[in-house]
């Protein structure tokens, strides 16, 4: 059912959550847990919007510009905004449109080739685990040890207290709360 991947790429425009979604659906995860996981995985995007809200409102593409704001388009939009050139919003729209179209083409190619390949791709699901391990290593090497250590401790404690299929969401919530409090009272002081 290759077309599910295309539908997911149109409706869920965030790569990490699409990978996680496959595992959540495979594990018959309750819909509320899936929705909350999506919210927490993509909460950073809520902070991007206000940067460009006034500028985007001048465009007839306003809803699409908000929907298509990703890490990559945000970085490019910042550079476009700094350039002070005319028709900035139009350029931002074309950047967003190109980004999403290339995302959809990549999804279509991946789904098509994956359906055609006669080989089994068992073990490839480790790619997401490897990606998150890489992120943790990068976090560690940047000398920000507290988030890594705190998240590991929270996850291990809640794994010990709760069943393995019920610890993830409380771990995300508690680690997020601790990080908010940490950045608010410890770092800001």
Question: What is this structure, in a nutshell?
Answer:
The protein has helices at residues 3-11, 15-26, 31-41, 44-56, 62-67, 71-83, 88-116, 126-141, 145-161, 168-187.
Your description of this structure?
This protein has about 190 residues and is mainly alpha-helical. It is about 75% helix and about 0% strand. It contains ten helices and no strands. The chain has helices at about 5-10, 15-25, 30-40, 45-55, 60-65, 70-85, 90-115, 125-140, 145-160, 170-185. The chain is globular and about 55 Å long.
Highlighted features:
189 residues, mainly alpha, 10 helices
Rounded to an integer in angstroms, the radius of gyration calculated over CA atoms is 19 Å
| Uncertain residue segments | none
If helices are DSSP runs of H or I spanning 4 or more residues, what is the number of helices?
A: 10
Domains, number = 2
Main beta-sheet annotation = none
User: What is the helix/strand order?
Assistant: HHHHHHHHHH
Proportion in β-strands: under 5%
Give the overall shape.
globular
């Amino acid at each position: 059912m290759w077309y599910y991947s295309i539908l997911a790429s149109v409706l869920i425009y965030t790569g990490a959550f699409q990978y996680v979604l496959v595992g959540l659906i495979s594990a018959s995860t309750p819909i509320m847990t899936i929705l909350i996981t999506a919210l927490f995985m993509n909460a950073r995007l809520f902070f991007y919007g206000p940067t460009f809200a006034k500028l985007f409102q001048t465009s007839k593409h306003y809803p699409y510009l908000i929907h298509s704001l990703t890490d990559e388009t945000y970085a490019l939009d910042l550079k476009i905004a700094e350039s002070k050139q005319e028709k900035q919003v139009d350029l931002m729209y074309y950047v967003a449109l190109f980004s999403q179209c290339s995302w959809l083409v990549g999804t279509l190619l991946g789904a098509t080739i994956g359906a055609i390949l006669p080989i089994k791709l068992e073990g490839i699901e480790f790619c997401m685990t490897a990606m998150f391990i890489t992120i943790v290593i990068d976090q560690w090497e940047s000398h920000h040890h507290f988030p890594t250590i705190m998240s590991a401790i929270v996850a291990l404690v809640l794994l010990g207290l709760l069943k393995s299929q019920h610890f993830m969401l409380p771990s995300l919530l508690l680690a997020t709360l601790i990080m908010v409090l940490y950045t608010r009272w410890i770092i800001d002081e």
